[in-house]
TrEMBL record:
Domain Hemerythrin-like: residue ranges: 83-222
Lineage: Bacteria, Pseudomonadati, Bacteroidota, Bacteroidia, Bacteroidales
Organism name: Candidatus Bacteroides avicola
InterPro entries (alphabetical): Hemerythrin-like (IPR012312)
Name listed for the protein in its UniProt record: Hemerythrin domain-containing protein
Length: 234
């Protein structure tokens, strides 16, 4: 018998957010907006056209930190999960990383021959490029392949195991960037700006790690299950 998950469809959506504020990110990536009063999760999802079981699968996965997938336990929708992942990619590439870069430029002194400041900025730009390559590959190759599966087409040139073999962690470089800032950036009169951007980098690192886990432990097994089902039908 499976343990019941923490959050249920009958819980108030506002209680989920107050219990774990990182679920605000999950909400926005499902396209859910605030202002839902005292409605429960099921009613909020239904009124905004979001698959409730998929939202809860991700919310519980992120909160419980569980890294197992039970086919009988999670009846989420693969199209809804893929839509969530696409919105997450847009968030990182179009909003989060550019915002961190702007704060970084404001916080470090790039005006004079400050070798460390230029190194930090260059390192960040390289990192952002790597994240873009990683996510664009998923958007173009992986999600297109899964769209084909959902339409009933198996490919003989690609499968989800190909993606798994290439799916490397993209938060490692952020760890190195944090270390450069913490250990080597010279102290200035007011470090509030630098500490604020460092805080954002820590958050981004955690968010990216969590995003990759959702891909590895929810998305990949669901796609594998879909592949198996189609093979059995052919």
């Amino acid at each position: 018998m499976n343990e019941p998950h923490k959050y249920r469809p009958t819980d108030k959506m506002s209680d989920l957010i107050c219990d774990n504020y990182s679920l605000l990110m999950v909400m926005s990536r499902f396209g859910l907006s605030l202002g839902f009063g005292d409605k429960n999760v099921k009613d909020v999802c239904e009124s905004q056209g979001v698959d409730c079981s998929t939202f809860l699968a991700v919310a519980n996965f992120i909160t419980e930190g569980q890294c197992t997938y039970d086919e009988g336990d999670t009846d989420f929708s693969l199209p809804a999960l893929m839509d969530y992942l696409k919105r997450a990619h847009a968030y990182f590439l179009d909003f989060n990383l550019p915002a961190i870069r702007r704060k970084l430029i404001e916080a470090i002194d790039c005006s004079e021959a400050n070798g460390v400041a230029m190194l930090i900025l260059r390192y960040f730009d390289e990192y952002a490029k790597e994240v873009r390559r990683h996510m664009e590959y998923e958007n173009e190759a992986v999600f297109t392949y899964v769209d084909g599966l959902l339409a009933g087409h198996l490919s003989d040139r690609f499968n989800i195991a190909t993606f798994v073999s290439k799916h490397n962690s993209i938060d490692t470089k952020l760890k190195e960037l944090k270390n450069i800032i913490i250990k080597y950036y010279p102290e200035t009169g007011n470090n509030n700006l630098l500490n604020a951007v460092l805080f954002d980098i820590f958050n981004c690192e955690q968010d990216l790690a969590s995003h990759c886990q959702v891909e590895d432990f929810l998305f990949v097994p669901a796609v594998t299950q879909m592949e198996r089902k189609l093979r059995n039908e052919h």
